[in-house]
Write a structure and sequence with these properties.
The structure holds two protein chains of two kinds. Chain A is α+β, with helices and mostly antiparallel strands. Chain A is built from seven helices and five strands, in the order H-E-H-H-H-E-E-H-H-H-E-E. In chain B, helix 1 packs parallel to helix 2. The chains are: A alpha+beta, B alpha/beta.
């Protein structure tokens, strides 16, 4: 990276009101550190307890999605380098009237459609419908071996109060890059 | 069998399950990556407590926040308590939530709708 780019990167982050950004492999330790840093930052900048909790909640679920997602990538995947494909992006920014949590991670094409359908389904629902869906998945769903309940995205949408913005960018014949932007008012 | 006491951590709640008083308290936040591992001893303790319970069993849930992985485990704990209810013990649930925390209040109401146990919703200034 040319030295000029450091300043460009700084300006970009400044312009986007970035509170924290991370690119790399999400481990339990990293997860704890990010949550700790964000909790203290939120305590400084956010007066509303309600908003603070919502942002924190969304962050917990987003981080855990990134963490569990890593386990899905098979050791024998060809093409994209293993470590590269396990790496994820997380950015948290504060604008005048809302926060944004952005995540990016590689996803195998085979899993992308299922996730897309789920997100479209969630985005088609209002507050009450999301609550009912949460309740029925909670009551009827089973925990996976990883301890995931299939509730993460529903919870993120409920806490966000906004539609989930997402896209799947094609990378190669096996992977897409999944981008998610969660706005919290 | 004795009491079950677990100190809280940044990702897990404080647990105080008292055999002699029948008061089971869980307090703090619950956001472990894999909650199954954390909740297993709690489930086992309650199962075993059910063999000779107090006449009244009180489950005090004082959670500031829990993740979706924990929500499923908490439901399982409620289901075990639901099964104990009426078998030599009367089970009551006190669901605490912080002022203006509609999300936690709703979460309590949702469990109340699923689980056949008396719930008391208690609003407090701070958990």
């Amino acid at each position: 990276m040319a030295l000029d780019n450091i300043y460009e990167l700084y300006k970009t982050m400044e312009r986007d009101h970035t509170m924290l950004s991370f690119k790399g492999v999400v481990t339990p330790d990293l997860l704890s550190s990010v949550l700790q840093i964000m909790e203290s930052k939120l305590n400084h900048v956010e007066k509303s307890n309600k908003t603070k909790k919502k942002v924190y909640n969304v962050l917990v679920e987003c981080l855990q999605n990134l963490y569990h997602h890593n386990e899905n990538i098979q050791e024998d995947e060809e093409g994209i380098n293993l470590l590269f494909s396990k790496s994820a992006l997380l950015m948290i920014s504060k604008n005048d009237d809302h926060y944004e949590v952005k995540t990016g991670n590689y996803i195998q094409k085979g899993n992308a459609q299922e996730l897309k359908d789920k997100l479209d389904d969630i985005n088609s629902m209002n507050k009450d419908e999301l609550r009912s869906l949460y309740k029925s998945v909670l009551n009827e769903g089973e925990l996976s071996d990883k301890g995931t309940a299939g509730l993460g995205m529903i919870d993120i949408a409920r806490k966000s109060g906004n539609k989930l913005e997402y896209s799947f960018l094609p990378v190669d014949k096996k992977f897409d890059f999944f981008c998610l932007n969660v706005k919290i008012n | 069998m004795g009491n079950l006491n677990m100190e809280g951590s940044p990702k897990t709640p404080t647990v105080n399950f008292d055999e002699s008083s029948g008061v089971l308290e869980i307090k703090g936040r619950s956001i472990p990556e894999n909650s199954v591992e954390f909740y297993k001893p709690l489930n086992e303790w309650v199962e075993s407590y059910g063999n000779s319970p107090q006449s009244v069993t009180t489950f005090d849930v004082k959670l500031e926040y829990f993740n979706t992985s924990s929500s499923k485990c908490i439901l399982d704990l409620f289901k075990i308590l639901e099964n104990l209810n009426g078998n030599n013990t009367e089970v009551k649930v006190n669901w605490y939530f912080e002022e203006d925390d509609e999300d936690m209040e709703e979460a309590g109401e949702d469990y109340q709708a699923i689980i056949n146990l008396p719930f008391k919703m208690i609003e407090v200034e701070e958990i």
